[in-house]
Write a structure and sequence with these properties.
Blueprint: H1 4-19, H2 28-34, E1 37-41, H3 48-59, H4 61-66, E2 70-75, H5 79-88, E3 95-98, H6 103-106, H7 124-138, E4 152-157, E5 160-166, H8 176-180
Parallel strand pairs: 1-2, 2-3
Antiparallel strand pairs: 1-4, 4-5
Length: 184
């Protein structure tokens, strides 16, 4: 039996899912009610690791679908700014939410942190990620969105957050399939 706190959290999540709409004008709640969702919060499009995330999700999209889920991206850019990136990685048909004010990122339900982007230069994990190929393969661009906002990934099922991953560094690599779990 869920506790009062758990019920309150679920009500808060449902309210948030009802409030935010995808670029195809569907509420996030409608999408979650259709099938489980892997909700992927990106950082900014100038970030090599965010382009890497787009590429990785594109490569496992069929495996995500085979597990009965669908990816939904949340990004900080305008729909027009985001379109070329999603098109490039063959993700143009994936639902996405434009959230330039980062209100969904910072909502207590998801509580994604903010970090000075220059602090990433002090992280060995970030340098290792860059040197192991992220920069060579995905390049680096200018920060046009909020470079302080950290990304995250949440698996939403039956109007609940089943599992989540909050980045500690921009170079963290979540296991998307592990977050979804086995095929149901």
């Amino acid at each position: 039996m869920p506790t009062t706190a758990q019920l309150a959290e679920q009500e808060q999540l449902v309210a948030v899912l009802r409030e935010y709409r995808t670029e195809s004008y569907r509420s996030l709640l409608e999408v979650v009610d259709q099938s489980p969702v892997l909700l992927i919060f990106l950082r900014h499009f100038g970030c090599a690791f965010c382009r890497q995330a787009l590429d990785q999700v594109a490569q496992i999209r069929d495996q995500i679908a085979a597990r009965g889920a669908q990816p939904v991206f949340v990004h900080l850019g305008s729909p027009e700014r985001a379109k070329p990136y999603f098109d490039y990685y063959q993700l143009s048909t994936v639902e996405r939410i434009s959230n330039p004010d980062a209100s969904l990122y910072q909502h207590p339900v998801f509580a994604l942190s903010r970090m000075n982007p220059y602090l990433n230069l002090l992280s060995m994990k970030v340098w290792k990620g860059w040197l192991s190929g992220a920069l060579r393969k995905y390049g680096i661009g200018s920060i046009q969105e909020d470079g302080h906002q950290m990304p995250g990934v949440f698996f939403l099922k039956e109007r609940k957050i089943a599992r989540g991953f909050r980045y500690q560094t921009i170079a963290d690599e979540p296991d998307y399939l592990k977050l979804i779990g086995p095929a149901s």
